[in-house]
Every structure is written in C-alpha cells, then in structure tokens.
Specification:
Protein Transport Mog1p, Chain A, 7-stranded antiparallel sheet
Length: 197
C-alpha cells in the first residue's frame, strides 16, 4: 500500500467529512496519556498524535514515522444517548465515511472487499467494517469501528499494509482497550448583574 497516497487520500476524505484544528500530549513512563474534553486513552511512546479537533468533534490521528499504519479517531461532541440518535449518526457520518474510504481505495487502484467485523473498545462491543484491498501489489486494509461510548459516538479507523498493521497491533490494542469517555461538566455561566434602578 502506498503510504503517501493512502494517507493523503484518507486525510482528504476525513477533511471533507469532519473538518480540522490543535495537539495535546502528556508524557508517561512507557506510554503517553491523552485526556482532553472527556476523551481519555493511553498510547505507546514512539507514536505521535495530531489533534485536528473542531467544535463538532474530536479528531485525532496517531502514527509512527517508521510505519505506514495509522489509527484515526473521531469522537462526536454531541450526545448519542438513544438508539435513534445512534442510528442518525450512522446515517449522517459513519456510512458516508465508510463509502468515502472505499471510494478512495478504488481511486488508488484497489478493489475493496467489505466484511462485517466487531471488537471491544473501552470495554464495550463495537461493530465495524473491514475494507481489504491490494494496492501496488501489497495487501492492506482499512478497518472502521463505531460505537456509543459515554453517550458519545466514537469512530476508530485502523489502516495500513498487512505488514505495518501486524507491527502496530500492540499500539492499537493499547489505545482501544484504554479508551473511555469521562463526563465533563459544563462550565457554569456567570449570572447577569442586576441593573441599577
């Protein structure tokens, strides 16, 4: 899989679907810890994190300079606390994102094969789709998982060549297993001062 083309195409897709913005990292002993706006997870040293969040969603990309594998995270800021809201999120941005990712693989010369998959993320069951394709003679995939976690919709994408994904699996496992959403309390607004009579 051509890392530059795949990364550029998928970056463009995510830019179109979500929007972009800044970076937060806190160093640890053997891993780094991310905690911002209620989103919390750990990731290994050696991985870099790019925060491109907007007012609508937190969007993060994790990768290594020596690997094609990337992990992308999209966490909508709105509440998804009913089955109807989750179904609406699936129609509004999850399915279009899957289609755009599939279309990007086709544009790069692949013939994606789509299969349903599932995994545990933050201790909860996530459903997903695996898009496998052979690009430039090298097999690879983009696997997209989604679930409601802490009343927010979380979408995780793990993609790259088979070889790079195998090497990145420990990082993927660390991120998906430690990911959770902490309830954030809204900042109280100051009460207006009474106007003098």
């Amino acid at each position: 899989m051509n890392a530059t083309r795949a990364s550029s195409s998928i970056s463009f897709v995510i830019l179109l679907l979500i929007g972009l913005t800044a970076t937060a990292q806190t160093p640890g002993d053997n891993s780094k810890h991310f905690a911002k706006d209620g989103l919390v997870f750990d990731y290994p040293n050696g991985w870099t994190l790019e925060d491109q969040s907007t007012t609508d969603a937190q969007q993060l990309t994790l990768g290594r300079a020596d690997s094609e594998a990337q992990i992308r995270m999209f966490v909508h800021r709105g509440r998804a606390d009913t089955p109807e809201k989750i179904a609406q999120a699936k129609r509004a941005f999850i399915e279009p994102y899957i289609k755009a990712t599939n279309d990007s693989l086709v544009q790069m010369g692949g013939v994606p094969e789509r299969t349903a998959v599932s995994t545990q993320i933050g201790g909860a069951q996530a459903e997903g789709v695996r898009l496998r394709a052979n690009l430039g003679g090298e097999p690879g995939e983009a696997t997209i998982y989604w679930l409601a976690l802490g009343s927010r919709v979380v979408v995780l994408t793990f993609f790259g060549s088979d070889k790079s994904l195998k090497q990145a699996t420990p990082a993927w496992d660390a991120i998906r297993n430690s990911l959770h959403i902490e309830e954030t309390k809204p900042t109280p607004k100051p009460s207006p001062k009474p106007s003098p009579k």
